[in-house]
Amino acid sequence: MGISRILQKLKLRYGSQETVIRTLRGMGVQIGERCRIYSSDFGGEPWLIRIGNHVCISNDVTFVNHGLTWPFQDKYDSLTSFGAIEIRDNCQIGVRATILPNITIGPNAIVGACAVVTKDVPPNTVVAGSPARVICTIDEYEAKCREGHIDIPLDRDAAREVLVKHFWGTRE
Fold it and tell me: Tell me: the pLDDT tens digits for 69-109?
């Protein structure tokens, strides 16, 4: 692995959001505005990945933009299978999700943690599982999130106090 590849990996893992996005764009990933990206595995063909505006990619998400053709390499020298991945506006991809080739997600969709996305995710839906399947609409999920909302202050110490009290109660 060359020094430039090592530096690229370090920027993706430890860089600021601006550094991560600049590095990914340099690799060929098309990225919109107001995105948060915490993953570094954009496959061997990152130029086949397009990310819209206001998208959050959580930790350890894997993008796979090529198919499995190795068993046929002795028969066909150049048999390959590639596919683009597009994540449209206002989506979130959960921790350790895997996105396979030829997939479009959203807009306004959520992919749950550890989901394996094998087919397109419809707009305004939440998917989870392996393979990923629709579990509810984005409106149903929003209602559920609002139901469980805990109003916490912005100050980290004050937020900790509120959360500890909420989950563990007061101990005397």
Answer: 888 888 887 888 899 999 999 999 999 999 999 999 999 99
Taking residue 138's Cβ as centre, other Cβ atoms within 10 Å add up to 18
Q: What amino acid is encoded at 161 in this protein?
A: E
Please state whether beta strands 125-128 and 133-137 pair in parallel, antiparallel, or not at all (unpaired). Answer: antiparallel
Residue 56 pLDDT: 98
The ranges of the chain with pLDDT < 50 are none
Q: Distance (Å, rounded) from C-alpha 108 to C-alpha 121?
A: 10
Please give the residue range of the domain that contains residue 89. Answer: 3-168
Place of tokens 């090592």: 6
Q: Give residue 16's region: left, alpha or beta (phi > 0; psi -120 to 50).
A: beta
Can you give the CATH number for the domain in which 86 is found? 2.160.10.10
How many structural domains compose the chain?
Answer: 1
Question: What pLDDT shows up at residue 24?
Answer: 95
Contact 35, 55 (CB under 8 A): yes
